[in-house]
Amino acid sequence: MSVPAPAADKRGSDVIWLYEKQKTIHARSVSGWFANWRWALVWATQLVFYGLPWLQWNGRQAVLFDLASRRFYLGGLVLYPQDFIYLTGLLVISAYGLFLFTAIAGRLWCGFACPQTVYTEMFMWIERRLEGDRMARIRLDAAPWGAVKLLRRGGKHALWITLALWTGFTFVGYFTPIETLWGQAFTLAFGPWEWFWVLFYGTATYGNAGFLREQVCKYMCPYARFQSAMFDKDTLIISYDSERGEPRGTRGRSTDLKAAKLGHCIDCDLCVQACPTGIDIRKGLQYECIGCAACIDVCDGVMDKMQYPRGLIRYDTQNGLARHLTRAQRWRRVLRPRVLIYGTVLGAICVALLVSLWLRTPFKVNVVRDRAALARLVEDGRIENVYRLQLMNASEAAQRFRITVGGLAGARLVVTGAGDVSVGAAESRWVPVAVQVPPEAAQRVGPGAHVIEFTIEQLPATPEHAARQIQERSTFVVPR
């Protein structure tokens, strides 16, 4: 970073400025194969994000994380807080997927699917529509404030704020039913938490995508700092072919390169102008490079105009550049140990998660002892302990359950209400029960806490479905 020359203050001492103002990066718009892929992923990710909360499933929102009732709906899957292990599995899969893709092809996630990249692309598209491309925006920055500048800047920020608030509204719609939230939006009747998260998420989107942009990738995102641990010399990265490009210099299309002693790089700096983080890829791999390939698209366009072969800037590996490997030779080196380890672990976790979901019991049970009275005497000298059973139906259909108890000879279960217990679809129900033990059985086992086991059996709704059951242990207290 450059340091301006010392300046003298009024008292005669020197003032040395250690920091300079952050220069605004006005990235040039590009078109090409990679730009099309980036926009395809923008559309795909945002159709999922904005559209998913509006999908319905069995009369309710298909994807809803209902924190108030402690239920999480994913299509036909109903999860409870006890199913937190599945969220852990998804996070581990995401992490290993990121490691695998990074080891193979560098920062693909950052350049094409990261929310920071996606929303920055959307905000920059609005900016270009209202303020023009790179040079027009630079001229507008330098122009004095007037009606035209105020109209363009004001319109841009109005659209940015609208998009950011809609993004915050959609985010909250994953936790509060979005149709309810939509009805409240017309009267601004959000609850305090809805207000907080709509404004917080909207402000974060507005600030990160509208103002911070490349600074998030360069200074705030930790991934840029530890990505090198997953790179090796066979990782695909954005590479400048210096053997072919150097020495660089301006020339005409008909210039004899051998006579002029020039490489293919015409030193137009378009690759720098197109870079969203403002780096010069010709200086080699840099941690600020997010792998968006904008420099590849713009350089290929220049090569086409100069009638040179494409690929002066391209996806390549360090070994590929040094050893002049062909594309087939590069891909044969993909299956190296770290890639095989990441892929094996990722596949095993995915299989384990799917098998666990397939074998998952569609109901859960919690047993809670009555702490007010550990034991009491009832008719015929029987000893009674009281419990509460929470039956959680994790399916989209009502279920019936039969509760039995074992573990102590002569133990008898007394359930409040007659018959089996019914629980509605995706509901939970607390069932108070009492376990009674005859006095002779209590004398045989002696005073103290003794293990008992509740068996909760799901009654089959049809003859084709076998009943499932869960055993939950607790303790039965025999007083002295």
Description:
By secondary structure, the chain is of the alpha+beta class. It has two domains: 21-358, no CATH class; 363-478, Immunoglobulin-like, CATH 2.60.40. 43% of the residues lie in helices and 19% in strands. The chain has 18 helices and 18 strands. The strands form six sheets. Strands 10, 11, 12, 14 and 16 form a five-stranded antiparallel β-sheet that branches. A four-stranded antiparallel β-sheet has the order 15-13-17-18, with no helix packed on it. A three-stranded antiparallel β-sheet has the order 5-6-7, with no helix packed on it. A hairpin with a 5-residue loop joins strand 11 (376-377) and strand 12 (383-393). Helix 2 (84-105) packs antiparallel against helix 17 (337-358). The radius of gyration is 33 Å and the shape is elongated.
The helix count comes to: 18
Count the beta strands: 18
Helix share, percent: 40-55%
Uncertain regions spanning at least 5 consecutive residues: none
Q: How many domains? A: 2
For the termini, the CA-CA separation is 80 Å
